[in-house]
Amino acid sequence: MPHSDDLLWGAVADISRFAALLTMAELGLADHLAHGPLSTSDLAARCDADAPRLRRVLRELAGMGVVRGAGPDAYDLTERGTALRSDVPDSVRSSIRMLGEEGFWHAMGNLPATVRNGGSAFAARYGHLYEYLAANPGAGKLFDDYMTARAIPFTEGLAKRYDFPDTATMVDVAGGKGHILATVLHANPDMRGILFDLEHVADRARELLAAEGLAERSEVVTGDFFAGVPAGGDVYLLASVLHNWDDDDAVTILRNVRRAMDPGGRVLVLEVVLPDDEAPHLGKDIDMRMLAIFDGGTERSREEYAALLDRADLRLAEVVELGAGASLIEARPR
C-alpha cells in the first residue's frame, strides 16, 4: 500500500487504541499493576470490571506496549505503561481521561456537524467550556489536572528561558490552579505574584500556592477578565488563554490588560504559535480541539498574534521558543 494509505488506516485504528488507553486510565489499571503482575481475574476484581471484556482490552494494550503478558492469562506493566500511573511526575492519565470525558468526546465526535453548521456542537449542547466545567466539578478537576500535566514542559521552559525582572509582580491572568505562577516564583525568589481567575477556581489555587510555600508571596484575586484585571502589575501572563476566544474577545482581554499594566510593564502570551507552512504541527492538532469545543477559539500564527496585539495598543517585541510546541510572545506598550 502507498504510504498515504498507511497514514489514513493508522488514523482509523487510532480510535480503537485511544479507547483502550481510556479504559486503562479510567479503571486505574496502571496503578493496580504498579507492584507486579496480576491475573486478569484478579485485576478485574480490583477495578470492578468484567474479566472477559477486560481480557480483550488487555490484549489490545499489550499490542501497544503498555502492558505485557506475564504467564497464563496474567499481565504486567511495561516502562511505557508506567506513564499511566497516577503517582508518577509525568503521568498522562489525567490527560487521557480529560480527552475521553463525556463533553469532550461529544465535541470531537461531532466535529463534522460543527464544520457544517458553523457553530460548535459542544457549545450548542453544553454552553461555554468554562460554564460546563463550573457546573461539573468532576470534569473541572480532570481539566485542571490535564492542564497542569500539559503545562509542565513549557512551564519549565518559561522559568529557565525568560529573563523576568528581579522584583516584579506578575499577574497570572486566568492562572487556574497556579502551577505556572508557582514555578516562576520558585525560580525568581524576589518576585511576587497575583493569580486572577474565576471564583470557583480560587480555592484550588490558594491550596496549591500554600502547599508550595508561596502564600506570603502571592495573592489570589477573583473576577472576570472581560470586565477588568488587577492593576499595577509589572508582568501580565496570559497562558493558554487567548486561543479560547475569537479575535474580538481576545482583543477585549488584551485591552483590559493594557489598561491595568504599569507604563513600563510587559505582557507575556504563552501559546502554541502556528507555522506558515503545511508541515504537521502540534498546534494544528490542538486547533481541531479548539474548533470542536469553542465558538471562535483558534490557534494562531505569529502574524495573527501581532495583529491582535496591535489592536490593543501593544507591539510584539519577541518570540521565545519554550519547547513542547509552545512559544512565549512578549509584548510591550506602544
How would you summarize the topology of this molecule?
Layout: H1 3-27, H2 29-32, E1 38-39, H3 40-46, H4 51-64, E2 67-69, E3 74-77, H5 93-99, H6 102-109, H7 111-117, H8 121-126, H9 129-135, H10 137-161, E4 169-173, H11 179-187, E5 192-197, H12 199-211, E6 218-222, E7 235-239, H13 247-260, E8 266-271, E9 273-274, H14 282-293, E10 300-301, H15 302-311, E11 314-323, E12 326-333
Parallel strand pairs: 4-5, 4-7, 5-6, 7-8, 9-10
Antiparallel strand pairs: 1-3, 2-3, 8-12, 11-12
Please, could you describe this protein's structure?
The chain is of the alpha/beta class. It has two domains: 3-87, Arc Repressor Mutant, subunit A (Orthogonal Bundle), CATH 1.10.10; 153-333, Rossmann fold. Helices cover 50% and strands 17% of the residues. A seven-stranded mixed beta sheet has the order 6-5-4-7-8-12-11, sandwiched between helices. A three-stranded antiparallel beta sheet has the order 1-3-2. Helix 1 packs across helix 4 (51-64), helix 3 packs across helix 4 (51-64) and helix 9 (129-135) packs across helix 10 (137-161). The protein is globular. The termini are far apart. Residues 19-84 form the O-methyltransferase dimerisation domain. GO terms for molecular function: methyltransferase activity. This is Methyltransferase.
Q: Enumerate the spans where pLDDT stays under 50 for 5 or more consecutive residues.
A: none
Q: Return Rg in Å.
A: 22 Å
Report the end-to-end length measured between terminal Cα atoms.
56 Å
User: Taking strands numbered 1, 2, ... along the chain, how are they ordered across the largest sheet?
Assistant: 6-5-4-7-8-12-11
Order of helices and strands: HHEHHEEHHHHHHEHEHEEHEEHEHEE
The profile of the biggest β sheet is: 7 strands, mixed
Assembly of the depicted chains: single chain
